[in-house]
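hiii so my PI (J.) wants the whole complex modelled not just the main chain, which honestly fair. so below is everything: two entries, each one labled with what it is. i double checked the lines twice but i was tired so who knows lol
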Amino acid sequence: MTLQTLLDQHACIWRGRRSVSAGQRTVSTGFDALDLVLSGGGWPEGAICELLSEHRGIDLLPLVMPALKQFAGRGKVCLVDPPCIPYAPAWQMAGIGLEHVIWMKTQDAGEQRWVLEQGLRDSACVAVLAWPAVLSSTMLRRLQLAAEEGMTTGFIFRDMNASRMSSPAAVRMALDMRVDGIYMRLLKRRGGWPVDICLQPFSDPARA
Amino acid sequence: MLWAALHFSGLSLAVFAAETDDAGPLAIVRGNRLIAVNRAAVKAGVRPGMRGNEARVLSRQLVIRSQQPAREQALLERLAAWCYQFSSTVSIDAPMGLLLEIGRSQRLFGSIDQLLHRLEQGLQSMSVDYCLATARTAAGALLLANADVAGRYDETQQFDRAIQTLTLRALPLTAKHCRALHAAGLRTLGDLRNLPRAAVTERLGTAFDSWLCRVLGECGDVRETYHPPVCFSVRQLLPVAVGVVAGLLFVAQRLLQELAVFLRLRDKEALALQWRLFSEDAADQRFELSSRTASQDEDYWLMLLRQRFERLQLNDPVVEIELKCSQMQDCQAQTADLLPDAAIQHNTSVNGFIDKVRARLGAGAVNYLCSVSEHRPEYAWTNCEPEMVKAAESGAGESIRPLWLLSEPRPLRIVNGRPRHEGSLEFVGERERIETGWWDDKPIARDYFTVIETGSGMKLWVYRDCHGDRAWFLHGIFGCVIHQGQDS
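here's the output for the full assembly
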């Protein structure tokens, strides 16, 4: 058995910078640059993806929009306590069927955690988006297990200072605004080292 | 026709079963004489007919309660409703009897023995003392049950032999007649039947004669049948005041089992249940559990109740629980496909998930979005029920709208004549003027602009009032500006 056949057969062997489809089910992100670097070629099903930014993830919604279109076709998308009102006309124009979007409103952190766990565990929901104020890594571990059980993708949007803590999420990325474009720093991904990718280079100073 | 009669000798005791300890002696009093005593009291030597003081001397721990006819009647009706699953002809023979016609139910249960076995099993689990007798006539079965003669007397000869030995006390005779017959040396019904009929009728009256006719099957017996109520409403006392919500689950489960029987009888499914928890000072806490898909399943309702109980805080200890169900719909028979349809299965699981969340967090926790045809941005969306969400008409050609809308427009400060958020704002795109709403009291006249904030790179949706002080506001957020399918 040559080394090559060994590498080809066992997809879970870690390969440094080149990530390889590990037979994992994924949903395409809609951005070729991201698809290339994420294991499986997209957002993993049955796992948690952490998205960090300065504004606690409000500005990262366009990043998951193309994937949400695909999710909405297959099941329900739950938004748990979004920071602002999801504007129905805009979501409709983005091509997302509103009959598949559920907006959960909770009264306190305990209820929020319960709804998150139930949504991830239930097979009726295929995607859960949350903007929790505080999330311990134990709770994140529980959510990861719940997502695996229900084969749901969880998108957790957090503040940038969460990047300093370790996390059991399968994918972690942070928004990085640089002079020459919008970059995503992949802090963690399956089957690969952290890498930076450019999502939107700035072609001219006007940044139109 | 085969009739089964049930005589609940322990009915007045059963009314208090929830409140008192089973093992302790209990006696029911009417006036100042005891009319019923339980086994523990009998052991202590207490007998019906004694006075209260005598009884107390015999047993110090004796608990004495006055008879509650209204509650006995209610309990009898609940038992009748429960027996309705064994026969469509149920008759209440006040104050403590029930009559069921079981001949026609034979085929459903396989055999009369199986029917009676299930009936007795159920009655034993309800902890009410009863006596069950069957006979070919309704009055005959009742006669045997009231006389505490239990058993099957389906055969005419068997029945005749049984009733011959019944004493005069079991017959509907006045005390005066009883004494007169006793003085004449007659002791049993057999003795009476040996006398010429006409003479007996003359002495005891036509009422007795017609009763005897009915017992022997010589003439018909028309009785009022019992019909289960249209709405389900049942109250259950708790043995002790319960201050912890988890302690209510056991009783709630019993009530749900009764509800399940009721729904099956009426061939209906429940859409919503109303629960009330009463505390000692008659104050009550009430809540409602509803389901998007009607269900007959008691386990499903128990699961929803558990979820609701997790969030429930009891104001006072609970002494009584009431369950009402008035919203029902006809049972919709599920036709099962050979190849299960994934869409239908998915729908049922989604409804189950939504019901669970609503039961635990309240109905307002789960919302759907839909867009409204309206130019004013803040009214162009609304929360609604999923049935009202129309299929998306993708607004091609309409102006762009932000993915996030702020619930209240946020004022922007002006620096050097230009609006500023956390960073300076750069205008992109065209101005959109929205001036509308003059017909109700919320007119708006605004110029909307799309801007990009330097520093964070976020695209924002701001507007400026056309009238008044021409202030600038932030109304929506698009997010970071990234185009799909961009190569790195």
